[in-house]
């Protein structure tokens, strides 16, 4: 899951969520100002309702923000009920203080209690509706994350069968004549599958590059001079996290759809560049000659999963794009700075 949304409270403190809640508070104040109450100046009523609503809202959010670290271990349901309790408490405090500051304490006590009860009832209804909407939103986000995780598992499952069989056949061919290369192949295979089967969701860029290098070294033993790999990497590599298995599946696609169907093979370029706007990772491969039959059909699982995870990690700013230019297929990963 993206680090920004690992806890239920995190979504509350996003700028878009805060602006939405403030606007909802203003809408509630407008409804109160238009309600059938005996008052001459509706604008004054709107101002008072707006000030009270925003004080209650912001004080509740402020209390939740201060408690956010302690609440990380709580379940979503417990956090929701605590938030509702804080909302009612802040309503009680703000209404009581406002009643005193406006000099309304001279009014009959029964009238003050009735006004307070109405405010608490209104806060309870608004809080319950907000919690219902929030819990539905959180569940939808959790389902979306699980769906992306399932796509990642599909990528992991997809590289196991045919790649494992090809690698073992290559190892069997090397074990007598070139045992050192066979040993290196098995070590690279172990590292690749360790990352694919049990690795974290995000790893440093240098580790993903190393993982991709191991994959290309394994495939180079199978294709020999038919596959030519060119690396263009900055020194040192940028220190940032990227989703696990985000570059490797794209290089795998370049090999299977560009190099493998071509009798003469081809070249793959892997480029990493960083500037003020962000990080750019480019995977280019030669296209097979016209009329070449594909060795295997693709389902675009690797490309789709990588795109979804990059977009989630970049919060909509990152992306994976593809294009064909000058007889080469170009895939570009972009991540914001």
In the CATH hierarchy, what is the class of the largest domain? Alpha Beta
Low-confidence parts = 1-6
**What is the overall pLDDT average?**
79
Largest sheet: 5 strands, mixed
Residues in helix, %: 55-70%
**Helical segment count:** 10
- Cross-sheet strand order for the largest sheet: 2-4-5-7-6
Q: For the record, what is the CATH homologous superfamily label of the largest domain? A: Histidine kinase-like ATPase, C-terminal domain
- The end-to-end distance, rounded to whole angstroms, is 20 Å
Structural class: alpha+beta
Name the shape in a single word: elongated
Structure overview:
By secondary structure, the protein is an alpha+beta fold. It folds into two domains: 3-149, no CATH class; 160-336, 2-Layer Sandwich (Heat Shock Protein 90). The chain is built from ten helices and seven strands. It has helices spanning 15-33, 42-66, 68-71, 76-101, 109-159, 161-174, 179-198, 205-223, 248-259, 301-313, and strands at 202-204, 227-232, 241-243, 266-275, 278-286, 319-325, 328-336. The strands form two sheets. It has a five-stranded mixed beta sheet, with helices on one face. Strands 1-3 form a two-stranded antiparallel ribbon. β6 (319-325) and β7 (328-336) form a beta hairpin. α5 packs antiparallel against α10 (301-313), α6 packs antiparallel against α7 (179-198) and α8 packs parallel to α9. The radius of gyration is 29 Å and the shape is elongated. The protein starts with 14 loop residues before the first helix and ends with a strand. The model is unreliable at 1-6 (pLDDT under 50).
């Amino acid at each position: 899951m993206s680090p920004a949304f690992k806890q239920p409270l995190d979504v509350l403190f996003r700028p878009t969520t805060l602006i939405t809640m403030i606007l909802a508070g203003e809408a509630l104040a407008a409804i109160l100002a238009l309600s059938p109450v005996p008052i001459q100046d509706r604008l004054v009523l709107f101002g008072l309702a707006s000030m009270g609503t925003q004080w209650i809202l912001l004080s509740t959010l402020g209390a939740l923000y201060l408690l956010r670290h302690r609440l990380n271990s709580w379940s979503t349901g417990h956090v929701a009920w605590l938030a509702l309790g804080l909302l009612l408490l802040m309503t009680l405090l703000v209404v009581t203080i406002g009643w005193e500051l406006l000099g309304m304490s001279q009014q009959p006590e029964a009238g003050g209690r009735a006004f307070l009860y109405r405010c608490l009832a209104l806060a309870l209804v608004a809080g319950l509706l907000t919690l219902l909407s929030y819990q539905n939103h959180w569940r939808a986000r959790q389902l979306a994350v699980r769906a992306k995780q399932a796509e990642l598992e599909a990528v992991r499952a997809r590289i196991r069968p045919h790649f494992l069989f090809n690698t073992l056949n290559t190892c069997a061919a090397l074990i007598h004549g070139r045992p050192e290369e066979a040993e290196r192949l098995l070590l690279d295979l172990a590292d690749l599958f360790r990352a694919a089967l049990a690795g974290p969701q995000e790893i440093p860029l240098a580790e993903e590059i190393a993982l991709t290098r191991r994959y290309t070294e394994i495939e180079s033993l199978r294709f020999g001079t038919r596959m030519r790999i060119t690396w263009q990497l900055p020194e040192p590599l940028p220190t940032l996290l990227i989703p696990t298995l985000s570059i490797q599946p794209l290089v795998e696609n370049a090999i299977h759809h560009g190099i493998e169907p071509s009798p003469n093979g081809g070249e793959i370029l892997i480029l990493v560049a960083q500037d003020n706007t962000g990080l750019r990772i480019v995977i280019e491969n030669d296209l097979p000659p016209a009329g070449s039959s594909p060795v295997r059909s693709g389902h675009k699982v690797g490309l789709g999963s990588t795109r979804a995870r990059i977009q989630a990690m970049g919060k909509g700013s990152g992306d994976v794009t593809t294009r064909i230019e000058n007889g080469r297929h170009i895939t570009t990963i972009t991540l914001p700075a």
